[in-house]
Amino acid sequence: MVERVETMTLAEFVRLYDTEGPFEIINGEMVKLSPTLAGHGDKAKTIYDAILIFDPQKKLVLAYFDVPFVLLASADWVRGSRVPDIMVFRAERMAQYRADNPDWEDKPFVLVPDLVVEVISANDIYTDVDTKVERYLEDGVQVVWVLDAKRKAIKVQRQGTYQTLHVGNILKGDEVIPGFEIAVKAIFE
Q1: CATH: 3.40.50.1820, 3.90.1570.10, 3.10.450.50, 3.40.50.980. Which one for 35-188?
Q2: Do the strands 61-65 and 86-90 form a parallel or antiparallel pair, or are they unpaired?
Q3: Which residue from 40, 71, 140, 185 puts its CA 20 to 30 A from 25's CA?
Q4: What's the chain's average pLDDT?
Q5: How many angstroms separate the CA atoms of 129 and 20, rounded?
Q6: What per-residue confidence (pLDDT) applies to 4?
Q7: Per-domain boundaries in the chain
């Protein structure tokens, strides 16, 4: 369901998200999110767990599951929001964000993630997912991983480049999670 939203304060965003359930604001439209299905959640959790096991002390990155981030038009006015399946921030960026925003726990992240993971669900339309990836990159996300369970493939996309990994390949954290590696096969088993 899509609803037109002209303006929204950060406080109103938080209230609506709490009372109406998860939604994104994309180009002035409030788009309600569908519930996550079990297979979808399982693939996202596999990546999330692998990141936590790789960096249990959170010295390199912090990963979040189904949490929104917002884009502000000005100090308190939301112009957009996204809810990736997983978002990852470099630890030093998150430390600075928390230091600059003592009330950070009481609102969505007002910080664009370094890496985003999207899992394609059975009810997703691939062109919609592709458009979502383009928006993430326009927002400033460095890397987007798109997991496609049907094809057992992961599309790794950066501004202007992408590669597709299949069973037999290794997914690497590269510049966002240096040293992180997981076999594509392990994600889809």
Answers
A1: 3.90.1570.10
A2: antiparallel
A3: 40
A4: 92
A5: 23
A6: 80
A7: 35-188
Q: 128-182 pLDDT, tens per residue?
A: 888 999 999 999 999 999 999 999 999 999 999 999 999 999 999 999 999 999 9
Read off the pTM.
Answer: 0.93
Residues 6 or more apart from 144 whose CB is under 8 A from it? 115, 116, 117, 118, 133, 136, 137, 155, 156, 157, 158
Report the range of poorest mean pLDDT among 10-24, 26-40, 75-89, 173-187. 26-40
Q: How far apart are CA 98 and CA 140, in angstroms?
A: 19
Q: Are 44 and 85 in contact (CB under 8 A)?
A: yes
